Amino acid sequence: MSPALDNGAPVPQNAPFVIYTDDQGQLLDTLPVCQDFNRGLCNRTACRFVHLQEGDGVEVVDQRVAVCRDAAKGQCARSTCKYYHIPIALPPAPVMAALASYLQQ
Ligand SMILES: [Zn+2]
Ligand SMILES: [Zn+2]
Protein backbone atom coordinates (compact mmCIF):
# COMPACT_ATOMS: atom_id res chain seq x y z
CA MET A 1 0.00 0.00 0.00
CA SER A 2 1.41 3.39 -0.91
CA PRO A 3 1.33 6.22 1.59
CA ALA A 4 -1.52 8.72 1.34
CA LEU A 5 -2.07 12.32 2.34
CA ASP A 6 -4.63 13.52 4.90
CA ASN A 7 -7.12 13.98 2.12
CA GLY A 8 -6.57 10.47 0.81
CA ALA A 9 -4.62 11.52 -2.26
CA PRO A 10 -1.49 9.51 -3.01
CA VAL A 11 1.85 11.11 -2.15
CA PRO A 12 3.49 12.46 -5.32
CA GLN A 13 6.27 10.17 -6.53
CA ASN A 14 8.82 12.95 -6.51
CA ALA A 15 8.06 14.12 -2.95
CA PRO A 16 11.34 12.79 -1.51
CA PHE A 17 13.36 14.69 -4.13
CA VAL A 18 11.98 18.19 -3.61
CA ILE A 19 14.34 20.49 -1.71
CA TYR A 20 12.40 21.68 1.33
CA THR A 21 15.20 23.38 3.22
CA ASP A 22 18.11 25.68 2.62
CA ASP A 23 21.68 24.54 3.03
CA GLN A 24 21.43 25.28 6.74
CA GLY A 25 18.61 22.80 7.11
CA GLN A 26 16.05 25.57 7.68
CA LEU A 27 12.63 24.99 6.21
CA LEU A 28 12.06 27.25 3.21
CA ASP A 29 9.14 29.70 3.30
CA THR A 30 8.07 28.96 -0.24
CA LEU A 31 8.67 26.18 -2.73
CA PRO A 32 8.62 26.33 -6.53
CA VAL A 33 5.77 24.54 -8.28
CA CYS A 34 6.54 22.30 -11.25
CA GLN A 35 5.12 24.01 -14.32
CA ASP A 36 5.49 20.93 -16.51
CA PHE A 37 3.45 18.84 -14.11
CA ASN A 38 0.54 21.26 -14.34
CA ARG A 39 0.46 20.63 -18.08
CA GLY A 40 0.80 16.89 -17.62
CA LEU A 41 4.27 17.02 -19.08
CA CYS A 42 6.46 16.13 -16.15
CA ASN A 43 7.50 12.52 -15.88
CA ARG A 44 10.63 13.05 -13.83
CA THR A 45 10.25 10.85 -10.78
CA ALA A 46 13.12 12.77 -9.18
CA CYS A 47 11.68 16.20 -10.06
CA ARG A 48 12.81 18.82 -7.53
CA PHE A 49 9.68 20.95 -7.86
CA VAL A 50 6.41 20.54 -6.05
CA HIS A 51 3.80 18.48 -7.88
CA LEU A 52 0.48 19.95 -6.83
CA GLN A 53 -2.54 17.71 -7.07
CA GLU A 54 -5.67 19.03 -8.65
CA GLY A 55 -8.05 20.19 -5.94
CA ASP A 56 -5.44 20.48 -3.21
CA GLY A 57 -6.66 24.02 -2.59
CA VAL A 58 -3.13 25.27 -2.13
CA GLU A 59 -2.62 28.89 -3.11
CA VAL A 60 0.05 29.43 -5.76
CA VAL A 61 1.67 32.87 -5.93
CA ASP A 62 4.27 33.61 -8.61
CA GLN A 63 4.49 29.87 -9.29
CA ARG A 64 5.42 29.14 -5.70
CA VAL A 65 3.54 27.73 -2.74
CA ALA A 66 3.97 28.81 0.87
CA VAL A 67 4.95 26.02 3.25
CA CYS A 68 2.49 25.39 6.09
CA ARG A 69 4.49 25.85 9.28
CA ASP A 70 1.82 24.18 11.39
CA ALA A 71 1.84 21.02 9.30
CA ALA A 72 5.64 21.02 9.32
CA LYS A 73 5.58 21.18 13.12
CA GLY A 74 3.23 18.25 13.29
CA GLN A 75 -0.35 19.37 12.97
CA CYS A 76 -2.39 21.87 11.00
CA ALA A 77 -5.80 22.66 12.46
CA ARG A 78 -7.20 24.35 9.36
CA SER A 79 -9.82 22.21 7.63
CA THR A 80 -8.94 23.82 4.32
CA CYS A 81 -5.43 25.16 4.26
CA LYS A 82 -4.05 27.31 1.47
CA TYR A 83 -0.50 26.50 2.49
CA TYR A 84 1.44 23.53 1.22
CA HIS A 85 1.65 20.49 3.47
CA ILE A 86 4.91 18.65 2.88
CA PRO A 87 3.69 15.12 2.14
CA ILE A 88 6.61 13.21 3.63
CA ALA A 89 8.36 13.10 6.98
CA LEU A 90 11.50 15.19 6.75
CA PRO A 91 14.83 13.89 8.02
CA PRO A 92 16.53 15.84 10.84
CA ALA A 93 17.83 19.32 9.93
CA PRO A 94 21.52 18.31 9.59
CA VAL A 95 20.56 15.61 7.10
CA MET A 96 18.38 18.01 5.13
CA ALA A 97 21.18 20.58 5.13
CA ALA A 98 23.63 18.07 3.71
CA LEU A 99 21.10 16.94 1.13
CA ALA A 100 20.22 20.48 0.07
CA SER A 101 23.83 21.53 -0.39
CA TYR A 102 24.59 18.31 -2.24
CA LEU A 103 21.63 18.71 -4.62
CA GLN A 104 22.32 22.38 -5.26
CA GLN A 105 25.86 21.83 -6.48
ZN1 LIG B 1 7.95 18.03 -12.08
ZN1 LIG C 1 -1.85 23.82 6.87
TrEMBL record:
Residues 28-54, 62-88 form the C3H1-type domain. GO terms for molecular function: RNA binding; zinc ion binding. Keywords: Metal-binding, Repeat, Zinc, Zinc-finger. One of its GO terms (biological process) is regulation of RNA splicing. InterPro entries: Znf-CCCH_Muscleblind-like, Znf_CCCH. Signal peptide: none annotated. Pfam families: zf-CCCH_10. Transmembrane segments: none annotated. A zinc finger (C3H1-type) spans 28-54, 62-88. It comes from the Eukaryota. Belongs to the muscleblind family. This is C3H1-type domain-containing protein. It comes from Popillia japonica. The lineage of its organism: Eukaryota, Metazoa, Ecdysozoa, Arthropoda, Hexapoda.
